[in-house]
Amino acid sequence: MDPLTSIPHFEKIEKSQQLIVNGKPFLMLGAELQNSSMTCAAYMNTIWQKLVDTNINTVLGCVTWEDIEPVEGTFDFSELDQVIVGAREHGLRLVLLWFGSFKNGLSTYTPGWVKKDFERFPRAQLRKAGGVLETGDVVSIFHTEARDADTRAFSALMRHVKEFDEEFSTVIMVQVENEVGLLGDSRDGSSIVNKRFSENVPQEIIEHLSSKWETLHSDLKANLQMFKSLGRGSGSWEDVFGRSSQTDELFMAYHYALYVDHIAAAGKQEYGLPLFTNVWQNNIAGVSDDAFPIIAGGGGEAGNYPSGGGVTNVLDIWLKFAPSLDLIAPDIYLNDYSISCAKYRHLNQPLFIPEQRRDEYGARRVWKAFGSYQAIGTSPFGIDTLEPATNPFTKHYGLLAQVKDIVLEAHRKPSSMVGFFFDDLSDGERDSSPPTVAQFGDFEVTISRSFVFGKAGPGAGMLIHLGDAKFLLIGWGFQASFKSLLPKATFTGILSFTEKTVDEAGKLVTGRRLNGDESRSGKFCIMPNEDPDYGGFPICVTIPARTMIAECEAYSLEEGK
Questions:
Q1: CB-CB contact of 311 with 303 (8 Å)
Q2: First vs last Cα of the chain: how many Å apart?
Q3: Span 476-496, pLDDT tens digits
Q4: 175-195: per-residue pLDDT in tens?
Q5: What is the pTM of this model?
Q6: Which residue spans of the chain are classified as CATH 3.20.20.80?
Q7: How far apart are CA 3 and CA 281, in angstroms?
């Protein structure tokens, strides 16, 4: 067997890729631990079962440079080995997060021998008012010593994981660094960097941006208008791109991509697992997913968020110059979730969300990622501080775990499915979750909040077109109505509506045949909440949710045919 296909790897499907584990497509129902949780096997032994009970199948946790190489050249993987065994014994997979040179734009997880040796491992210099330079808490990417030491450590990690875990595939992916980029300035202001900035832009960048202009991300093209209008084929960074913080960010992105790719390429030579890096998002359009101030998520200025990280306005640079990474993954907390998902499907790269909100608000949104954007996985952050009984992901992941094989099959035909969510409504509040309207074959489907007599509740789920006029409805708090798009159709109705369960083999099993109140006498298929509001109405016409899976078949009449 080819060793590259016997270990976890990506396989191309229509408009995306799927993660393959043990020879089968794998849907990652992930969750990330608090920053340093996985540095202690004894601590992990207290929470493994809690993670299992939350219906998580993959745990994201750190491996830190300072822990595995406290003395230069001497590696200690004993704690990591115990963690891998603990996950394996509980049937969980792991995604290792390499906190090497960078964690949240800083170098706080580097070993003490790196932190204290400023001569060997120079720091980035931040430009402050009055021309003052401030030493940053981050190694410079324009010197090779830190990069090469990080590369040796990461290579040792990947080599050890291969030796310890290859036959089990407990570890299925590895994140290279964490939220890289420069905080506090749009670029490093040291003298060596100023010199590099004044030199000619590498021709490979100019050729790539010129030849791929039509397919570049719209957020990048918006920052390249001077480049496009001048058409300069050479010159300094400011000559070619103009003087701006966007030019600084482009410069930093290119060098960060080269830095991370150097480390990733060496690690992949040791063990060819899928590799990715994650991104602290900016907010270039001021689009927030909640009532938090924009600056809380990094704002729109490079340096307020890590300048040079793989945000969408430099994503093409990362995809080109860090080819050893299999994907660039967005952390989504305050940005609009759906818009962020769409942006990171750029050039059909697979979508993975390694960090997101862990509350009910966040949990509802994973259905959009899986149902509309073929996500390989999602991962709420700080999961080890929640209890399964009150963790909203216990319910959401529990249902997704039942239908994962069905979802993975639908991912191979992305036009066959759509995900959606409906947020809580406060009294008198405008509904910020409008209906979802989609077309499948000859039918238009409208998905809206579930019918109730009282206050409409939240909801989430996905709809999968099974072919012809058949549809699978998964989730709760919504209803689906159908309209034939045939030009002569005079009536569209519901032919059948049946409750479903999933057996141990992942196959659908028919339960109750639904009709009458459950379809409002044939008007739409209701997938209600577990506790629908009857609004004081004395007849319980909206039954509570049970299996949260149903199949329906629509039909239409062409009376004048």
A1: no
A2: 58
A3: 999 999 999 999 999 999 999
A4: 999 999 999 999 999 999 999
A5: 0.94
A6: 3-412
A7: 35
